[in-house]
Amino acid sequence: MLIKDLKDPRLRGITLTGVTMGDDLRRGRVFFSHIEGRAKAEAAIAGFRSAGGFIRREIGRALGLRYTPELDFEFDPGPERAARIGELLRDAREKP
């Protein structure tokens, strides 16, 4: 859906990294990373908020839930942090 149906340029370069749902399935948190890191996170969140109704409608259709959950979008710094750790480890190996 993100690639094919959402045309918002603020959502280009994102990867969904995880979802957590409340026990009653009425609220969910969607975690994402961005290819350009934290610098584009706020714009991506604004893009998600703008497309929120469309995303909820599509999820409701696909899953057939009685209630379509409210979704909160949150930047996940994990991939960015992992890349930085990888960089530091490579640099440490290269130094004598």
Question: Which descriptors apply to this entry?
Answer:
single chain, about 100 residues, alpha+beta, GMP Synthetase, Chain A, domain 3, three-stranded mixed beta sheet, 3 helices, about 40% helix
Q: Oligomeric form of this entry?
A: single chain
**CA(first)-CA(last) distance:** 48 Å
**Poorly predicted tracts of residues:** none
Average pLDDT number:
88
Strand content: 15-25%
Q: Work out the helicity level.
A: 40-55%
State the CATH architecture: 2-Layer Sandwich
Approximate shape:
elongated
Query: Within the largest sheet, what's the order of strands?
Result: 1-2-3
Q: By CATH's scheme, which homologous superfamily applies?
A: K homology (KH) domain
- What is the helix/strand order? EEHHEH
Q: Would you mind describing this structure in some detail?
A:
With 96 residues, the chain is α+β, with helices and mostly antiparallel strands. The protein has a single domain, classed as K homology (KH) domain (GMP Synthetase, Chain A, domain 3), CATH 3.30.300.20. It is built from three helices and three strands, in the order ββααβα. It has a three-stranded mixed beta sheet with strand order 1-2-3, sandwiched between helices. The longest helix has 17 residues, at 78-94. The N and C termini lie far apart (48 Å).
Topology:
Layout: E1 14-21, E2 27-34, H1 41-50, H2 52-63, E3 70-75, H3 78-94
Parallel strand pairs: 2-3
Antiparallel strand pairs: 1-2
